[in-house]
UniProtKB/TrEMBL annotation:
It comes from the Bacteria. PROSITE patterns: COX2, COX2_CUA, COX2_TM, CYTC. SUPFAM superfamilies: Cupredoxins (SSF49503), Cytochrome c (SSF46626), Cytochrome c oxidase subunit II-like, transmembrane region (SSF81464). It comes from Levilinea saccharolytica. GO terms for molecular function: copper ion binding; cytochrome-c oxidase activity; heme binding; oxidoreductase activity. Residues 103-216 form the Cytochrome oxidase subunit II copper A binding domain. Residues 224-321 form the Cytochrome c domain. It is an enzyme of class 7 (translocase). Its EC number is 7.1.1.9. The chain crosses the membrane at residues 30-52, 72-91. Subunits I and II form the functional core of the enzyme complex. Electrons originating in cytochrome c are transferred via heme a and Cu(A) to the binuclear center formed by heme a3 and Cu(B). This is Cytochrome c oxidase subunit 2. The keyword Translocase applies. It is a multi-pass membrane protein.
Length: 321
């Protein structure tokens, strides 16, 4: 069936996972059976419309009356029933294959939030804003949401999974990338204003490149606090709302922020020191700088970041003169 598939006809994205091939086979089988049935109905309908049309004013001939046909009823019950059962058999075979568990799977913890993706590799302690994967190795995603319902979708992998908010509510998804390259994880569940932009790179590398990437990331983690803070900022979506070049985005720019003086929404003024920066991360709506809307920055960072990570972020902000 794959040779007559929609993918080889260029109508679907490349198959970049082991699951994609199986799902496409099933999809193609359905596609051709349904196309055949549809054309059968189409042909008979057009034939009937043309051949049995009313001809002229005096054509009052009545159709032949018949009262049911047991043979026909049995025929059109058995054939579709057999077809549906056969397809459910094929489907259950594919499902078992798609969900096959490999005990050595690479675990990645995924957090989806408004509007970012964060990927953590528990074995190495790496945190990344991109999902980087070795080719040919099964990956097990353990996914949670920080706020509303999101959905993990990489069209090239043909897998999709809703991610639900709630403590200890972890949704799992397994797949095996089979093609190196760069793809995108998209959010497939309407989740607010920037839903359409909620995507992140997915990079599938060969195993040697992946090991090199891991080594590089782990080296970066152990360097100076400001460098760690920079990685945290890039990997957690901070820079979506805070610029580094002085231009105001949704929130104040980080350039030159440390040490500057600002008027707050309540009319008082504040010098941005370490204590204020820490407060601004932990309780973002307690002392909002005048001119910026309150209630936009999520108040979830106290749970999301460790004390060390907050200190690293502050060190990074203070380094941006
Ligand atoms: Cu997250 Cu749409």
């Amino acid at each position: 069936m794959t040779n007559f598939g929609l993918q080889s006809a260029g109508l679907l994205p490349v198959q970049a996972s082991a699951q994609a091939t199986l799902i496409d086979q099933l999809f193609n089988a359905h596609y051709w059976v349904i196309s055949f049935l549809f054309s059968l109905i189409g042909v008979f309908m057009v034939y009937s419309i043309v051949v049995f049309r009313r001809r002229g004013e005096n054509d009052t001939q009545q159709g032949k009356f018949f009262k049911g046909s047991t043979k026909l009823e049995i025929f059109w019950t058995i054939i579709p029933l057999g077809t549906v059962l056969y397809f459910s058999y094929l489907g259950s075979l594919s499902l078992a294959d798609i969900r096959r568990v490999e005990p050595q799977a690479l675990v990645v913890n995924v957090t989806a939030g408004q509007w970012y993706w964060r990927f953590e590799y528990p074995e190495t302690g790496i945190t990344s804003g991109s999902l980087v994967l070795p080719v040919g190795e099964q990956v097990l995603l353990k996914m949670t949401s920080a706020d509303v319902i999101h959905s993990f979708w990489v069209p090239e992998f043909r897998v999709k999974q809703d991610i639900l908010p709630g403590e200890n509510l972890v949704k799992e998804l397994r797949f095996t990338p089979t093609l190196t390259g760069e793809y995108k994880v998209l959010c497939a569940e309407l989740c607010g204003g920037a839903h359409a932009n909620m995507n992140a790179p997915v990079i599938v590398m060969d195993k040697a490149d992946f090991a090199a990437w891991e080594a590089g990331e782990m080296a970066a983690v152990s360097s100076d606090p400001a460098a760690r803070g920079e990685r945290l900022a890039k990997n957690n979506g901070c820079l979506g709302c805070h610029s580094l070049d002085g231009s105001p985005l949704v929130g104040p720019t980080w350039k030159g922020m440390a040490g500057s003086t600002h008027e707050l929404a309540d009319g008082s003024s504040v010098t941005v020191d370490e204590a204020y920066l820490i407060q601004a991360i932990l309780e973002p709506n307690a002392a909002v700088v005048k001119g910026f809307p309150p209630g936009v920055m999520p108040a979830t960072y106290a749970d999301q970041f460790s004390e060390q990570q907050i200190a690293d972020l502050v060190a990074y902000m203070q380094s941006l003169k």
